[in-house]
Design a protein that fits this description.
This protein has 155 residues and is an alpha+beta fold. The protein has 4 helices and 6 strands. The chain has a single domain, classed as 2-Layer Sandwich (Beta-Lactamase). A 6-stranded antiparallel sheet has the order 3-2-1-6-5-4, with helices on both faces. α1 packs antiparallel against α2 and α1 packs parallel to α4. The radius of gyration is 14 Å and the shape is globular.
Length: 155
């Protein structure tokens, strides 16, 4: 993932006013651009404050996740990016795909700072996501990608 990819993502998402279409293209774009990932998708916040499955690329996934549960629900509750180099060491990890070994979840916030969705990315490699370089730089780019998505879907 590069700065140039962010410009391409922004251009791709500028062509539709429909949330499902935008999220579908964003998931497909990130899935294609990122190496060593087995799942890329979005979970959206429902009326009760929990998550439900949105557009994604990869194997079938959990349909709903409660606030505060698993990596996605914890990211929602805490309103921050969670980087999990080894999902087997995350307390309360929810296994939707047995292949997933590492994960990053990035909250998508509205202009008031409320989390309205999360971007969830899984890898079948332990340590694919970490706070060490070069992953740290890629994570910063993914957080910018989440901001681009937020701007387009939360207008």
């Amino acid at each position: 993932m590069t700065e140039k990819d962010l410009l391409s993502l922004e251009a791709l998402l500028s062509n539709s006013p429909h949330q499902v279409s935008l999220l579908s293209n964003a998931a497909a774009f990130l899935y294609e651009k990122l190496g060593d990932v087995c799942w890329v998708g979005f979970y959206l916040v429902d009326d009760k404050g929990d998550l439900y499955l949105g557009p994604f690329q990869g194997r079938p996934a959990c349909v709903s996740i409660s606030r505060g549960k698993g990596v996605c629900g914890t990211s929602l509750a805490e309103g921050r990016t969670l980087i999990v180099p080894d999902v087997s060491k995350f307390p309360g990890y929810i296994s939707c795909d047995a292949e997933a070994c590492s994960e990053i979840v990035i909250p998508i916030k509205d202009n008031k700072g409320n989390v309205r969705a999360v971007l969830d990315i899984d890898s079948s490699s332990t340590g694919r996501f970490s706070e060490e370089e070069p992953a740290k730089t890629e994570i910063a780019l993914l957080e910018k990608a989440a901001e681009i998505v937020a701007f387009r879907i939360l207008k």
